[in-house]
Prior knowledge:
This protein is of the alpha/beta class. The chain has helices spanning 2-26, 63-72, 76-96, 109-112, 117-127, 141-146, 148-161, 177-182, 192-197, 202-217, 230-238, 255-262, 275-281, and strands spanning 29-38, 44-55, 59-61, 103-107, 135-140, 164-170, 187-190, 221-225, 243-245, 253-254. The longest helix is centred in the first third of the chain and has 25 residues, at 2-26.
Amino acid sequence: xxxxxxxxAGAERLNLHNELRMAIERRExxxxxxxKIDSTTGQIRGVEALLRWNHPERGNVSPVVFIPVAERxxxxxxxxxxVIDEVCRQMHEWADEGMRTRVAINLSVHQLRQxxxxxxxxxxxxxxxxxxxxxLCEVTESVAMGDPDTLQRVFDGxxxxxxxxxxxxxxxxxxxxxxxxxxxxxQLKIDRSFINDIETSKDALAIVSAVVxxxxxxxxxxxxxxxxxxxxxxxxxxxxxxxxxxxYFARPMAAxxxxxxxxxxxxxGAVDFSPSxxxxxxxx
Length: 284
Ligand code: C2E
Ligand code: MG
Ligand code: MG
């Protein structure tokens, strides 16, 4: 039974792989954008770009499912390169419409091993006439700590061209504090599993509070991900957490919806912002 299940799982991955290959050709992949809110001003500090795949038969396939498939079958660099270019194109289009914002992309460990990653990002920024400080690269903590030499090289390269760096899902890996201190990262994103428990678990509360203090002591900004309730928001504000992201504020949304919001049409379920607050958020 075990072997049969293994075979089935393998076959399913292979199917997904073939379909993902076609999806890239057919341009079925899209990016959605989720706001990050400044805890002190309540304004949007930037957005995170998140891949979406709307499969003609399967419906929406989660990036949690297809990113590992893309990594395993060597498609991640192609997808990652598309994300870099698409995000830059989108930032330029928004800027033309009067909306300047900072966008975060997620980088896979495979992309970090691409020799030309930094040059590629620099070229995309130039091609779309963007300031490098408008881009932020998120790297998952477990990845960040797995291969410190590669990471240091890429991070130094990104810092040199002026791109911000963030350590994602912080708390799920095993960070070596020495490495953390040496990386030119700008922010830590606390994993949403801790935020989820912050109202009910003293341990989670203690961990989040300690991480906020640690990050601040290292000169890093802290972002809490997965904020779903007003209670969580209030606790995080009380801890001086710098930015918050989560369904409580807004779900990831299409580029047009974000722009609509900017024009004053709030998406369903999002917190209330005045358009002028949206305008002012835009950091340069
Ligand atoms: P991540 O970078 O940690 O992204 C945050 C995930 O949390 C997103 O899931 C987002 O939709 C979800 N989220 C945000 N707020 C809440 C909340 O309040 N509650 C809950 N339960 N979830 C919330 P998503 O979009 O499914 O992405 C999952 C992961 O897939 C990402 O985690 C990232 O690791 C990866 N991913 C997404 N897009 C890309 C990409 O373009 N490149 C790479 N390499 N990985 C990506
Ligand atoms: Mg992320
Ligand atoms: Mg995360």
